[in-house]
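Support reply, case 0932

Customer input (verbatim):
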Amino acid sequence: MNIVKNALAEDVGSGDLTAQLIGVETVAQAQVVSREAAILCGIAWFNEVFEQLNSKIEISWYAEDGDQIEPNQKLCYLEGSARDLLTGERSALNFLQLLSGTATMAHEYVKAARNAVVLDTRKTIPGLRDAQKYAVVCGGGKNHRMGLYDAFLIKENHIFAAGSIGNAVRAARQLAANLSVEVEVETLDELKEALQAGADIVLLDNFSLADLEEAVAITQGKAKLEASGGVNLETIGGIADTGVDFISVGAITKDVKAIDLSMRFLSC
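Our regenerated output:
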């Protein structure tokens, strides 16, 4: 994983000075413990840190990605070079804490959304999109498009440049007929235009609850409806109750709070 290689490069640089205080032959045993309740995620990235530093380090996990973990729960046991365990500790925990935080937030939104499907967005930490989108799935959410390359999402500026919603949708069909076409709209009139143009999905941007309900009534299943804008844990339940199919939440990956985890040596 290049992302792990880059993380180690920025942390270790020309060498871990403090780890060199420990004898090169010293072997240590350690464990990672959770300090709060969370959804665990990021095992592969954690393991890869130590694989790149020293493939002889042994790691045994007591939980899996997607598991609910509790405060003071032992998550894994490590044994190997004390120097390399110390060098990799922060990078490994950074991945595990951040991705567990993403999965945990996704899980909270999924619970609050009742029957609507919770989607992530492209508002991810640069370089960590694949990892964060994996974490969203571990938390029970679903992935929106991965990037600009795998689905159409026609927004206000695309519509302006194309001349109309209809022109933009027709151009998308001609460019890649096998891909779904989603159109972002800001009014009910624009929704009607998108439906007339044959959009597969319509993103309702910052609609009031009343307008969301009317949008569902207007659409009558002709397209899938996605609500976005103003979504938080307090509002998502009401948005879901309007009958939309999807709710996209940028906060899941953008406003993530790392989970408190700790690695402690047991013996050397």
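We compared this against your earlier run and they match. Two observations from our side: DSSP finds ten helices and twelve strands in the chain. Residues 82-112 form the longest helix (31 residues). Please reopen the case if you see a mismatch on your end.
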